[in-house]
What does this fold into?
Amino acid sequence: MTALSEWAERYRAPLYIAKRILSGIPTLLAVLTVIFFAIRTLPGDPALAILGDTATDASIAALREKLGLNLPIWRQYLDFLGGLFQGDLGTSLVYGRSVASELLRVLPYTLSLTLASIVIGTVIGVPLGILSALHRNRFIDYATRVFSLIGFSFPVFYAGIMLILVFAVWLPWFPVMSSSVDGTIIEKLRGLVLPAVAGSLGLIAMITRASRSSLLDVMGDDYIRTARAKGLTERTVLYRHALRNALIPVVTVIGLYFALIIGNSVLIETVFTRPGLGSLIIGSLDNRDYPMVQGLLVTYAAIVIVINILTDLTYSMIDPRINRA
Amino acid sequence: MSDAALSVKNLTTSFYINGEWHPAVRNLSFDLARDETLAIVGESGSGKSVTVMSIMRLLAETGSRIEGEVMLDGNVLTGDADEMQRLRGDRMAMIFQEPMTALNPVLQVGFQVAEPLMQHRGMPKAEAMAEAVRLLEQVGIPSAKSRALEYPHQFSGGMRQRVMIAMALACEPTVLFADEPTTALDVTIQAQVLGLLEDLRHQKGMGLLLITHSMGVVAAIADRVAVMYAGAIVETGPVDKIFAQPIHPYTEGLLKSIPRPDRDASEIYSIPGSVPALDKMPKGCRFAPRCPLSTERCLNDDPSLEMVTDGHSAACWVRAGGAS
It folds into this structure.
């Protein structure tokens, strides 16, 4: 073995991680470019939108100058990228504050909501899927499948309203509005429960289905027969040999669904009057707050790219065949 | 034979197809001594694999039915799931045809070899892993210590089959089943793996039940042969007798179909037709529709296995005169 290949062998895992993170950069750059030009092609003049119908031509021209809208498009593009590089996403036209600080203020709410939904979805979905697969075509399986079909076809906003009605109004266990910006960690968590459950319903259904079919698939594989042939108990066959292989496609589902859940958070945050990216994007679109909309899109794109990288890294942890290259 | 490693009596395995039970293995009986290699030979669909899977009880429970008696080490097996689980991998072990898919892709090779020891001997993991390295060395895997920590995709087909052999031998079983262990391997590797199996069988004094469709493999390592056709043994005997004086026309056909360097490819014999499907079995001798010698009687009555010379039996009205 040469020194180089020995080195590559020893640092295979960190190298893979570094490679995967670097490969996110061109994707992000491409998305940023699309976002920049998409925003620029929106109809309407931002300056006019800010100042309103009664503005004079002179004040509009002055504002356009101030916002840099008179510069050639490539200059604006470079300024945009340069700003991003320094963490500057511009200034909100509505709040007059820095877009970046506004985003950072609400980001934890959306992220905690999304993560909580994913955790609930996984913790309930995977065991349900296993149970369903092990009792294939028996009562538990049918019940689980009906349950996931219902969860899947429930609109998020309706589920949210029903949850509020039952668990906040009839049974006052949780707050009706989870907007408590301050408060203890316990209060924050209590405020998180209902929105997270609402967000997890569809995910539970997806994960249950994916883990059921994936486990059934895997149980028919040759190495499961080998595991039985060497006298392992059914329990060991399931938990040690089948489950890890069966989880690989489930990770894909969770990764793909992450983007969808972040999208759903717009509805959930509105129903539960909860701060977050979702409520911010609705307000910003209403007010034509272009820098804010742009900043939000950049944030969504970055989250999705990061999730993709994390999904890939999770694969490589489960499946030793992946981080070979 | 009470000292047989494995003794099978009247094994019948049926599958439920289109509302009816169809036997895939019929009234199969054979003994396997310690330190003996018995080859079960036959075409695809003759019931060779089903026989072994029935003895190991590895068939899916729904849709299959197993009858008959199996004795392992002189004890009758009840077929109880817990009992079978304790015996598998300990007293009887199995090697499969596809080394590429038979190992778990996400577990270290050494750990997979160590598993039977942890399960049946209650060995702690570290000790079992050390033993696994020794087993891997024994089956000829170079630098076994570091390779034990690698994963199956880092091994070639031949090496994986060696891993399978190491795994099967971990608990020194009485009986080793090998289901077409070399079919998926390169020809050069086949001879190595067969040689290894033969050596280890001899060292450990195991009974080796080898399933194959290749008469070449039979000639290489078997002591005795059982030729299966459509779920039943049609001829059985010592390997030299079967090769020198085959009785059953089916055995004859199999032997004639071995390609030989002194003949043209156009002269290679092939038995016309194929093994009938389970739900389309002819009555009488199952081979009669494909048999060049078949008579009226063959088409109506099923012949039973009759001893022709010492230890050499066949089921054929014409050649063995089997009285039913």
Summary: The CA atoms of residues 15 and 211 of chain B lie 21 Å apart. The first strand of chain B starts at residue 6 and ends at 17.
